[in-house]
Amino acid sequence: MAMWNPWRGCHKKSEGCKYCYIHKGDSRRGIDTNKIVKTKNFYAPIEKNKSGEYKIKPGKTVYLCFSTDFLLEDADKWRDECFDMIRERSDLHFLFLTKRIERFTDCIPKDWKDGYENVTVGCTVENQETADYRLSIFKDLPIKHKNIICQPLIEEIDLTGYLDGIELVVVGGESDKNARFLDYEWVLKIREACKESNTHFNFRQCGTHFIKDGKKYTLKVKDLCSQARKANIDF
Ligand code: SF4
User: Fold this and answer.
1) What is the whole-number distance in angstroms between the Cα of residue 10 and the centre of ligand 1?
2) Cβ distance 145 to 114 under 8 Å?
3) Which domains does the chain have, with CATH numbers?
């Protein structure tokens, strides 16, 4: 796996951004997250070593814009160059998540057609309102590999009608001392919908504040993922 953040910074977009870890980290360091700037890693996928080989070895999954949003308006002027690199590196698989799926058709290159084989797009939703709005757009988009990311999940979501053609649904809670509760029943409900539609399911992390069988728990950040794994409900 490799990380690729061609730019840094992001703007809060919806309820799910309330405790964004990028904003929290930047504010501790006195950095303005709302200032969007290119990073020195902009050309990372096509950088080569002294022997002329790509530094990122073939076959890797590249996590693109995991500390920003690939469809951010501020980055419109840079995205075509990113697509050139994605096309050049057909030996890598690129994955980006977005809360701005409504911008997708304005952002893709001319030769996108029904999607690049080496790109997975994850549409992130946090509540029923964002699910209904974003997923009704997402379901009709020409994308070869689609995931739905329900993280942070802040209320019960019904995904009925949105799972056709989805490869994976990821569910996770919020991480913050003021985080909104994650109820395990909501997780199981989404899992059930995935089972019925034969869609892979991954419970990625618990929430700092977690409800199971009606009991409330407060978990440490370091335990959020391991506790979710212990549930052993992925398929
Ligand atoms: S879209 Fe993602 S990176 Fe941007 S503010 Fe929201 S949570 Fe943070």
Assistant:
1) 6
2) no
3) 2-231 (3.20.20)
